[in-house]
Amino acid sequence: MTPIRGKMVRLDGKLVIRYEAVLWSEPTRQILYWPLSEDRSTGGAFRLEGHLLVTLDDHGGWGVAPEDRDFWVLKNARAVMLNGGKTEAVRVEREPISCPKVRAGVKTRWYEGEWQKLTKKGWVRA
Length: 126
Fold this sequence. Notes:
The chain is mainly β. It contains 1 helix and 10 strands, in the order βββββαβββββ. It has one domain (5-98). The strands form 2 sheets. A 7-stranded antiparallel beta sheet has the order 6-5-4-1-2-3-7, with no helix packed on it. The chain has a 3-stranded antiparallel beta sheet with strand order 8-9-10, with no helix packed on it.
């Protein structure tokens, strides 16, 4: 299982996981907010607020990411999503990703999650 990365934030006064994903098919960033179960979370999970988190299992468990500056202090705290691995997002936001500036006349396209431009070498990241 590849870990999913998110950040614990407050949404309408409740703790949630904020997760961002770039859509491969269109130039859009999707932001999902997953609710946490405050009674099933352990080790003072509220202390994880504002920290980078990663999934720990397929059952909705989250812990502090190893690269977070406070990893050693918070490594035993666990946040658990409301319905485990079947949790639905309580809010979904969509933001357009605008094409970066390129010289006039240069062709661009959105391809597999990134903007590309056409050069003599072919399509490259814009």
